[in-house]
Amino acid sequence: CLVRKHMFPKDFPQLRNDTFLRAARGEETEHVPVWCMRQAGRYLTEFREFRAGKDFFETCQSPEACCELTLQPLRRFGFDAAIIFSDILVIPQALGMDVQMVAGKGPTFPEPLKEPEDLQRLTAKVDVGKELGYVFKAITLTRHKIEGKVPLIGFSGAPWTLMSYMIEGGGSNTHSKAKRWLYRHPEASHMLLTMLTDVIVEYLLGQVAAGAQALQVFESHAGILGPVHFNEYSLPYLRDIARRVKDELKEAGQDVPMIVFAKDAHYAVEDLSQSHYDVVGLDWTIDPQSARERTGGKVSLQGNMDPCALYAPKERISDIVKKMLEGFGTRGYIANLGHGVYPDMDPENVGAFVEAVHQHSKQMIKKI
Ligand code: CP3
């Protein structure tokens, strides 16, 4: 059993705010829970100070650093969940690829995969506990240090998003190198996606064993796929991950909510709501009410305020939040942005967002 394989006794502090977990399961709450993707990030002065002069992935490999960066936003704002500080690209690293974070450029692979033969360069049987044990240690340490204030979310990149980075070698507008594989090397593409899926499943289970109380899978590059390719190269793997993780957790007597965030894949919300995930995360290109109608109460929803709306004055942020809450309703809903907080954001406006969600939702729930 993959959960037990990574499990050891930990004796964590008792959880005092389970609003996020209850909303993920569609249960009643007193307010709508809220957190932000990239809540630990460069928009915080304390984050920039802590990260100054340190290599990004070395920071990811230090459990103490990850713990500190995860806790920073919780000291400022009333977030209802924390997400472990790490990165989705630790998986390509575990598969043997070199990945560097280049200032001003973002993640960079000096030797990306070019042709199917390059798959042979990847580690065939990854020892997840050994290669990614530092993430598990970070999760265990952070779960202790959060002192039960809020639940801790673990995460992974989804197979297609990781595949596209491994072939593109970094960010891209067209993802044409990675999409070339889909058209030209469908078999090799499926082989790579399968390899990634196997590692992701064990990685997510290891995170739960280490103390993660919810899991989010980031398919950040879904938008570059049309519905046909999404159905062939993304959705089956997203489903497989949730099904296998859930089955293993059930066997171990654990129930951990899973969130899928497929950015710009609004054509797929119906399918995503029937993919064994408890929560579907949404970007801002979909209207809250229609997302609710199309998912028909089968899942909880998370999202989806435009991150740029945080540039608005605080009163305006409050109005936008109110409309969003009215669109989604207060049950089975987790407020979030439609993508990560931008590095130039004023932290005060992030605080205004959190407060507006709590304030408006409390009033709305009282009236029901
Ligand atoms: O607060 C959190 O959300 C938790 C930490 C987190 C990071 N990356 C930290 C980080 C999470 C969940 C991620 C996931 C991640 N990483 C994704 C999926 C989410 C998404 O944005 O769609 C992706 C695509 C990546 C890859 C990646 N890592 C990119 C594109 C960048 C930005 C590069 C840049 O220069 O802007 C990173 C770097 C990164 N990961 C930062 C942080 C806080 C900023 C760089 C730094 O701290 O020096």
TrEMBL record:
- The keyword Ribosomal protein is assigned to this record: no
Question: Cross-referenced Gene3D superfamilies, in alphabetical order?
Answer: 3.20.20.210
Biological process, per Gene Ontology: protoporphyrinogen IX biosynthetic process
**Which cellular components does GO assign to this protein?**
cytosol
Entry annotated with the keyword Hydrolase: no
What does the UniProt keyword field contain?
Cytoplasm, Decarboxylase, Heme biosynthesis, Lyase, Porphyrin biosynthesis
User: Where in the cell does this protein reside?
Assistant: Cytoplasm
- Entry's InterPro entries? UROD/MetE-like_sf, Uroporphyrinogen_deCO2ase_HemE, Uroporphyrinogen_deCOase
| Family, similarity comment | Belongs to the uroporphyrinogen decarboxylase family.
Name of the protein: Uroporphyrinogen decarboxylase
Q: Which organism does this record belong to?
A: Dicentrarchus labrax (European seabass)
What gene name is listed for this protein?
urod
